[in-house]
Amino acid sequence: MPDNVIQPPIPTTPVTSQVMDALRALVGERGLITGEQDKQTFVTDWRGSRIGTASVVVRPATVEETSKVVKLCYDHGIAIVPQAGNTGLMGGATPWPTHQGIVLSVGRMNKVLEVDSVGYSMTVEAGCILQTLQETAAAHDRFFPLSLGAQGSCMIGGNLSTNAGGVQVLRYGNARNLVLGLEVVLPNGDIWNGLRSLKKDNTGYDLKHLFMGAEGTLGIITKAVLKLWPAAKDVATAWMAIRDPQAAIEILSEAHSASEDNVESCELMCREVTEMVLRHIPGVQDPLKADTPWYLLMLWSSSRPRAEGAEGMAEKMEQFLAEQMEKGRVLDAVLAQSEAQTQNMWKIRESVAEAGRAEGAGLSYDISVSISKIPEFIDKGIKAALEILPSLRPHPLGHIGDGNVHFGFGAPTGMDKATLQQYAPAITRAVNDLITSMAGSISAEHGIGIEKLDELAHYRSRTELDTMRTIKRALDPKNIMNPGKVLRL
Amino acid sequence: MSAFVDKLRSIVGDKGLILDDQGKHPYLTDWRENYLGSALAIVRPATTEEVASVVKLCAAEKVAIVPQGGNTGMSGGGTPHEAGREIVLSLTRMSRILEVDTIGYSMTVEAGVVLKTIQEAAAEHDRLFPLSLGAEGSCTIGGNLSTNAGGVQVLHYGNTRNLVLGLEVVLPSGDIWDGLRALKKDNTGYDLRDLYLGAEGTLGIITRAVLKLWPKPKDHATSWSAIASPQAAVELLSGAYAASEDNVTSCELMGRQGIDLVLKHIPGTTDPLADKHDWYVLMEWSSTRPAREGANAGGLRDKMEAYLGEAMEKGLVLDAVIAQTEAQSKSLWALRENHSEASKKEGPSIKFDISVAVSKIPAFTTVGLAAMRKALPECRPLPFGHVGDGNLHFNCQAPAGWDKARFTPHIETISSAIYDLVVEYGGSISAEHGIGRIKVEELEHYRGKVELDTMRALKRALDPQNIMNPGKVIRV
Fold it and tell me: Residues of A numbered 395-424 whose beta carbons fall under 8 angstroms of chain B's beta carbons: which are they?
C-alpha cells in the first residue's frame, strides 16, 4: 500500500503517569494494556503494512467507562484511536507513528443485550463479533444479513463506523441500512442515546447516519439497535464459469425475475484470484476445474420453505442455468448439492483477502461505478495499469450487483513490495482518474482511513471537503477523535 | 431595502420576483393556515446558479431565507416568521426532469418538480417512483426530500431518504455542493446527503436530486376490510406478508370518525360496505410479476381473496371488499387520502404524527384515546395511519361547532398528554411530518440535552450567520 501518505498534524499530548493512574482508576488493571509486546496487535493494521504506536491500549467494559475515559482525554487534549476488531483495510483504526495518546478498544463490550424477534431487531454492544450476531439471529429464526470475509473477527462497532459492505448489499443494503438506532460517546465524553428502534422518526438532523461511516472521527459507537430479517428457508448456490463480465451483468439482470426477486448475492471472480485462493487456503476445492477466465458465484434465498411438490430455489436455479448456457453466457456450472459444497464455494470468495495477504505484495482498489459500466471499467482499468507496469497480474473481482469492483493487482512475479511501491502512485492515479471520469467512487465500501486521505482530497470538491471539515471541527473541536484519518483539517 | 430588492431583481429578473401583497399571500401562509407570515419578497430563481447568487446576496446582507417547495408541509417549516425580514425562496420554477435512466433505475430532477409529475414520468418509462402521499398533486420533490417525507408506501420502500442516491445543495454561503452521484455504494467521508435530507431547509437548499426507481408493478390488489380493533390490524398485516409473498406495499388503519368526515366533506366518496364499523384497514399488494392468464392462476387478487376469507373465518375481519377495477381501487384510496382535507373542512384540529413500535400500536391507541378524552371529553379523536411503520396520525378534531379561538386553549393540555405517552412508549413525536415551527418546543422538551447540543453545533457550524430557515427545527 502507498507509504507516501504524509501524516497530518495530530495532537501529541502525552499520557502522563498521572493520566495513566486516572485511566487505571476508571477501567481497572484488566482494562489496560501497557506492555509493548501486548500492544503490538493493536497498533498494527490487519495487512501488517502500517505500524503505529500508543501510550496505552484502554479497554473499557461499559459505555460509562468509555465516557469517562473520553472525558479524561478531552480534558487533557489526548488523542484517541477507537478500535474494534482491527480488520479494516484502510488503516482507519491504526494509530499514526507519532501518536502519543491511547487506542480505545471496544472489544470488552461484547454483549447482545436484547433480541426482539417479533419487532425484528437486536440491541448489541459495539464489541460483538459479527459472526456471533449472525449466529444469535439464527438461533431466534432470524437473519442479520451483514456478511464479509472478516466476519469471524471483525466487530459490529467497526462495521458500523466504516459503513461496511459485503456480499449481501445487493439485497439488504450497506451496514447503514441495517441499523435503527445508535449510542455514541461524543468527543467530549457525553453519551448520545439514540438507541431507538423506530422505523420512522423525523425529529431533527439525522445524527445516526453522520456517525456511521465517519470511521471514529466524530465519536465512538458503543451500542446499536440492528434490524433483523426472517431466516432463509430455501436456498440455492451456484458456481458458474461465464463468458465475460458483460455476461455476468446480463445473468444477474435476468436472475431477478427467474428467482422471483430472491437473488441474495452475486459475486464476480476471475481465474487468477481463484487460483490464488487454492494456492494459499488449505482445504478449498476448485468447484469446476474449468480453465476459463471468469466465474460467477450466485446465491438465491427465500424465507418461504419449499412447498410440497412445488419447485424450490434449486429447481428454479437449475432451469435458469440451463437457459443461460443456451444463451452462451454460462459456459459451465455447478449447483451446490450439499452444505459442504456451498461452504466451499463461499470460502473461495471469502478467503480472497486472506490469500492476497499470503501471496505478498499487491495493489487493491475498492471502486464503484454504475452497474452497466463495470465491463468497460475493468477493460480500460486493466489496460491503464498494464501500460504503467506490463507485468502486473490483474486480480479483479467484486459485488457486481452493487457496481462495486475490488480491482486488485498482484505484484509481477519476483517483484518485492518496495519496487512495486515505486509504481503505485502512477497506477493509483490512473485508476482513480478513470473511475472519476466514469462518475464512480474511489472508495465503495472500505472507507478512507489513512490510505485514501490524499485521494479523497484530490478527487472531492473544495466545497465538499470544507463542509466535512466544518462538521469535524464543530463536533470535535480539540481534534482528539481519531485525528488525521478521513480528512486533513 | 429597495436597493436589496434591486439586487435580487438583477439576479432573477422580474419573472422571478413577487412583491405585491396579493401575489405574496399564498407563499406566506401554511397549508393548514396555522401561520401567516410576512416576507420582503418571494424570490423564484430559475436555476441552481440563480439560487446560489441569491443566497450569496442574502449572506452578504444578512437577510434570512425561508426555502419553500410546494408549501404543503404540516409543521410550518416552509412558512416565514411574522416580522417580515426574511425572503421566501421558492423552488417551483426549477421544475425540469433532467434525465431518466431506465437501465440504471434512476432519475435526475430539479427540486421544484411536482411529486405526481415524477410518478408519471417514471410510469411512462415502465418504472415506479414509490413516494406517494395525499399532497402528491401539489407538493414538490425538494420539499419531500427536505422533510424526509413518509407516505403510504414506506412499509415496502422506506422513507424518502431511502429513495435518493445523490443531491445538489446550495449551502448557506451560496456555494454549491455537487453530490449528484448515482452510486449504490460510496464510502468517502461523512454522509452529507443524509444530513440535508430531513433538515427542513435549515442547513441548505436542495436544488437537484438523483432519485432511485423501481420496476413498475404489473399486478395489484386493493382491499377494504372492516375490523374490530387496531389489534386486528396488526395481526392482519403480520399474516399478509407471507400470504402475499412479501408483496404488501401499503397497510392503512382508519377509524369510523375519519370515514364519516370524508363522506361528509368530500364529494363523490361512498362507504364501500353496507354496515358501519369502528375500524378499517386499507391494504394494497403489488408485484412486478404480471398475473398469469386464466382463472385462479395465482394473481394477487386471488391470493388476497383467499387470505381475507381465512381472516373472516378467524373473526379477524368482519366484512371486506376487494377492488375489481382500477376505478374501485381509486375510490378506496380516496377515503384514505382525503382525511386531511376533510378534517380541515370540518374545523380546527390538532395533528399528532407519532410513531411507536408496531407491536405497541394497539396498546398505545387504547391509552391514547382515553388520555385525549380525559383532557377534553367533548373532543373527537381521529386516529388513522400507517400500521406497518408504527406511524399513527393520532389526530384530535375539535368538538363539533367549536372555532379555533375556543379550541386553542385546550391544545397544550391535550398535546402534553399525548406526547408524554409517546415518550413513555419509546416512540417519536414526529414520525414523518418533521419539526418545522410547530414542534420546536416539543423537541426541546423531549430530546436530551446532548442530542440538542449536537444538532445546535451542526447548525452553528454549517450556517454560522443563522440565515437558513432560522427558528425552525432547532433554535440556536
Answer: 399, 402-404
pLDDT at A1: 43
Residue in B122, B151, B169, B287 with CA at minimum distance from that of residue B219 = B287
Class of domain A112-230: alpha beta
Tell me the shortest Cα–Cα distance from A280 to chain B, in angstroms: 30
Distance from CA of B100 to the nearest CA of A (A): 14
Task: Look up the CATH architecture of domain B2-90.
Answer: 2-Layer Sandwich (3.30)
What does the pLDDT read at residue A101? 98
Predicted structure pTM score:
0.93
Q: Which helix (H) or strand (E) holds A338?
A: none
Condensed to tens digits (0 to 9), the pLDDT of residues B379-394 reads 999 999 999 899 999 9
Give pLDDT < 70 ranges for chain A: 1-3
As given in the structure block, the three cell numbers for residue A262 are 430472491
Interface of A with B in 422-461 (CB under 8 A): 439-448, 452, 456, 460-461
How far apart are the C-alpha atoms of B280 and B273, rounded to whole Å? 10
- Å from A358 to nearest chain B CA? 27
Task: Classify domain B219-339 by CATH architecture.
Answer: 2-Layer Sandwich (3.30)
User: Which residues from A are below 8 Å from B434, CB to CB?
Assistant: 202-203
Residue of chain A whose alpha carbon sits nearest to that of B165: A370
Could you say which residues from 275 to 314 on chain B have a Cβ atom under 8 Å away from some Cβ of chain A?
288-289
pLDDT reported for residue B294: 57
State residue A77's pLDDT score.
98
Model ipTM value = 0.92
How far CA A462 is from CA of A436, A469, B459, in Å, comes to 16, 10, 20
The pLDDT assigned to B1 comes to 66
Distance separating alpha carbons of residues A153 and A447, to the nearest angstrom: 18
At A425 the pLDDT is: 93
A193 part of contact set with chain B, CB < 8 Å: yes
